[in-house]
Amino acid sequence: MMALADRSESRSGRLKLEAQSIRDLKSAIGIGLPKGGTGMFSNLLTYPGLNPGTCDYCHRERVANVLTSAPFLWTGHKIMRNHEDKTTKGYGASVMGVGVASGVFHSFLKTENPKLKSVFRRLDYMAVSFSTLMLLKAARIEVPRGYYKTAYLYGSLNPLAMAACNIGIMETAYLKRVAKAPELKGIHKLHSVVAAVSIGSFLLEEFKEDIPHSHAVWHCTAAMSTATAQPLLPKNTAKAS
Fold it and tell me: Beta-carbon neighbour count of residue 186 at 10 Å?
């Protein structure tokens, strides 16, 4: 009887340990987190609640983040100026929209008006999601039937995850384009390096939010990554000089 009780107690202990391990794993990747969690993984895997994010915790950071939103305006304006077709111009306008949304979002300190800042953060993410979708259209990248309708709907619910999906499709198409046009290898290498730094700075801020200007670095590198993806756009839409 004592041996049976010991085995039962041991089994109960293992079950408790396994349950705790599962809870720890879910917590680590964001599954089951309450709405409003600031973690990037909870935004990717669950419906992201409104929250002000981790940036703009002081005036210096806020100013840097507002100023580094400007490269999106310049990049978008350049795309609109150098192309005539409506789809590509629309993509350029959407890149400018990312700059505007980012500037508005960062104009508030994290502690000033958290609720309003949370709304603008969601709009900022939605602008990024919409712009990456417009890039797929402008570059005539093939996607599954019904993808755009799904992307518009899901992009409004979880813009960060939708943007990540769009970027993944774009990067795959870019690799295929480079394989057919070796002359693009140089700019693609630059694009890849800048994109890696951009993703790294974004992740760094999620795990270590007090590193100065990490979000500003993300702005600059993301804008440069956008600029170096222009070979995907149709050449026959460029204005004659």
Answer: 10
Distance in Å from the first CA to the final CA of the chain: 93
The full DSSP string for the chain is -HHHHHHHHHHHHHHHHHHHHHHHHHHHHTTTPPTT---HHHHHHSPPPP---S---SHHHHHHHHHTTHHHHHHHHHHHHHB-SHHHHHHHHHHHHHHHHHHHHTTS-TTT-HHHHHHHHHHHHHHHHHHHHHHHHHTT----TTHHHHHHHHHHH-HHHHHHHHHHHHHHHHHHHHHH-GGGHHHHHHHHHHHHHHHHHHHHHHH-TTSTTHHHHHHHHHHHHHHTTGGGS-GGGBPP-
107/62 Cα distance (integer angstroms): 7
How would you write 51-106 as a 3-class SS string?
A: CCCCCCCCHHHHHHHHHCCHHHHHHHHHHHHHECCHHHHHHHHHHHHHHHHHHHHC
Nearest 5°: the CA angle 218, 224, 228 is 140
Q: How far apart are CA 126 and CA 77, in angstroms?
A: 20
Tell me, what amino acid is at 99?
Answer: G
Predicted local distance difference test score (pLDDT) of residue 113: 81
CA pair distance 231, 220, nearest whole angstrom: 19
The structure tokens listed for 72 are 């999106």
pLDDT in tens, 101-150: 999 999 988 778 888 888 898 899 999 999 999 999 999 999 998 999 99
Class of residue 217 by CB neighbours under 10 A (exposed 0-12, middle 13-18, buried 19+): buried
